[in-house]
Amino acid sequence: MSDRISIFWFRRDLRLDDNVGLYQALQSDFPVLPIFIFDKEILSSLPNKDPRVSFIHLQLQKLRNQLQDNHQSGIALYHGEPLSIFKKLMDQYEVQCVYTNHDYEPYALERDTKVKAHLKENGVGFQTFKDQVIFEKNDVVKDDGDPYVVYTPYMKRWKETFNPSIHLVDYDTHSLMGKNLYKASSFANLSLKDIGFEPADIKVADYKVSPDLIQDYKQTRDYPGIHQGTSRLGPHLRFGTVSIRKMIQKAIAEKDSTFQNELIWREFFMQILWHFPKTVNHAFKPKYDRIKWRNNEAEFERWKAGNTGYALVDAGMRELNATGYMHNRVRMLVASFLCKHLLIDWRWGESYFAEKLLDYELASNVGNWQWAAGSGVDAAPYFRIFNPMTQAEKFDKQLKYIHKWVPEFQELTYPTPMVDHKMARERCLKVYKEAVG
């Protein structure tokens, strides 16, 4: 007789504590086998030293060790196509139900629909839960049921709807683990090499969400030269190594609306993606798809390498290439420069950020790139064109950030600006006006 079990499927929730789906699984009537699937569909497009894959693998090994040491349990790791993995698991065990947390991206929704349909055909339940956001889908909408497409009214309604006693429940998984986890002498494991990867040179930095950082956040977050002026929380929210509920709780405890508002921006873009999945590849405002992009590949390469001749733009791109991170203020500038100074399609930039950013998240990345291009919800008007020189003067006056990443910027070897700001601005306005009127 094969063992009767429930399965908890880890995905964007790589933690044991305050994990809604894991908590619900542990309340079931059967021992819980935790699993993680390295999805070939996702991995196939990544370089073999991708730091995000290294980070996921490292986090999973930490969780496996914790479960082994404390509960004689573990996490079974698999590599392949999720539906095929579940078919094999159903041959190996009497699976009663699969538990997991919601994922909102188009590929994930398609994947989950296939898995759920197969499980249902075989009498197996598939239960998913809200875990990576406070509010999702239709949780925060206008009075008529339409989604918000402007951030400020969404944020205000978010705060009106929010109730700490309801939305900040701590899902105490640890009290349930001892008796409800599946126990075995060993669990399927995989090395990075087994899935076709090597350890990455770039590491994901620990996050820092101290009371001081939160209290100073409004004053420090716009200045890339300030060391630890931001939290580095992005990758940890992206992969769920930290609970969003715990982060909102910290923001509330310090009475800081700026830090909390940044977390709400993330949920704003997630609900936009859920309501308008076409925005992954198409402008939210369709007339912006009529823009006649120049799409000069040589200029795109100079932008990617940080050799544009504009020091703050170059500093941002070099930081991204070296660390997988870029300061948020600088992200806005480099995106605007690509779309408006060079007239290169925002989708090219979005794709490059997807390749490089440790905190890459489809909803926020698409939302922010469309904001920069003027084509998205709540977007900057197309005639708002950042001047890279005045941005540097305003946000890196002491040149700390520029000196760090572009040490040669005052030398003769540093390139002259690849495009004149005044000419580029006028060209951009002409091309945009022709497209959108």
CATH overall fold name of the largest domain: DNA Cyclobutane Dipyrimidine Photolyase, subunit A, domain 3
Tell me the structural class: alpha/beta
End-to-end C-alpha gap: 70 Å
What is the CATH architecture annotation of the largest domain?
A: Orthogonal Bundle
Report the principal-axis shape: globular
β-strand amount: 5-15%
Radius of gyration: 23 Å
* Number of contiguous helices: 20
CATH class of the largest domain: Mainly Alpha
What would your notes on this structure say?
By secondary structure, the protein is an alpha/beta fold. The chain folds into three domains: 1-131, Rossmann fold (3-Layer(aba) Sandwich); 132-169 and 206-275, Serine Threonine Protein Phosphatase 5, Tetratricopeptide repeat (Alpha Horseshoe); 280-432, DNA Cyclobutane Dipyrimidine Photolyase, subunit A, domain 3 (Orthogonal Bundle). It contains 20 helices and five strands. It has a five-stranded parallel beta sheet, sandwiched between helices. Strand 4, helix 5 and strand 5 form a beta-alpha-beta unit. The radius of gyration is 23 Å and the shape is globular. The mean pLDDT is 95. The record marks 293, 346, 369 as: Electron transfer via tryptophanyl radical. FAD binds at residues 217, 259, 262-269. Keywords: Chromophore, FAD, Flavoprotein. It holds the Pfam family DNA_photolyase. One of its GO terms (molecular function) is DNA binding.
